[in-house]
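#struct-help
A.M.: can someone run this one for me? Single chain, 67 residues.
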Amino acid sequence: GEGLDLPAVLAALAARGLRRVFVEGGGVTVSRFLAAGLLDRLHVTVAPLLLGAGVPAFTLPGVAGRC
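D.P.: on it. Structure tokens below:
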């Protein structure tokens, strides 16, 4: 389906004393954390694409009420 319940995963980790989590992933992973408002800091590295059309860096929903 839609993947993991990210707030629940972070709450479970926090309950075990893990207050800082390093998330490393592609555009889909980062987009899900970003859309859920679960990132305090975002470091983006751009790597050259060597083969194929590639995957979009971020996939986020549109802004409501946008002109």
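A.M.: thanks! The CA atoms of residues 31 and 59 lie 6 Å apart.
D.P.: also worth noting: Residues 6-15 form the longest helix (10 residues).
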